[in-house]
Amino acid sequence: MDDGVTDDHHIRWFRPDWQGRQARAVPSDSPAAAVRRVARRIAEVRREKGLTQEEMATRLDCALKNFQRIESRDGQNVTVKTLTRIANILGVTVTDLVPPPERGKRKARPAAE
């Protein structure tokens, strides 16, 4: 169906006058790094609360192996729903389980000879 509107018109409609605005600096982060940070944080908070992986799996009504995957180094990409359930069990907010990316980590330069 031809509505008489060009594709260019749709682009301008969905992106009004953003071209002149300065973008906000957002730290670069890979999805895998974000999943690892969340996994480490879940394990850290769980230990602080004195809960075992077995207890968490029981409370989440999931297999122990599945919960272990959530906390593993490779990390399982959890849904927001599951992350919310974990946060509720631990008595924290979802944002407490999602630490920001680490900034400014650079390798030290070798000393000049």
Protein described:
The protein has 113 residues and is mainly alpha-helical. It is built from five helices and no strands. The protein has helices at 7-14, 31-48, 53-60, 64-71, 80-90. Helix 3 crosses helix 4.
Task: Write a short abstract of this structure.
The protein has 113 residues and is mainly alpha-helical. Helix content is 47%, strand content 0%.
List the helices and strands and how they pair.
Blueprint: H1 7-14, H2 31-48, H3 53-60, H4 64-71, H5 80-90
Could you name the key traits of this structure?
single chain; 113 residues; mainly alpha; 434 Repressor (Amino-terminal Domain); globular
Number of separate strands: 0
Helix content: 40-55%
CATH domain class name of the domain at 31-90: Mainly Alpha
Order of helices and strands: HHHHH
User: CATH H level of the domain at 31-90: which superfamily?
Assistant: lambda repressor-like DNA-binding domains
Strand content: under 5%
Q: Characterize the main sheet.
A: none
Number of helices: 5
Mean pLDDT: 78
CATH names the topology of the domain at 31-90 as 434 Repressor (Amino-terminal Domain)
Give unreliable regions as ranges. Answer: 5-18
**Could you tell me the radius of gyration in angstroms?**
22 Å
Termini gap = 72 Å
State the CATH architecture of the domain at 31-90: Orthogonal Bundle
User: Rough shape?
Assistant: globular
Q: Structural class, from helix and strand content?
A: mainly alpha
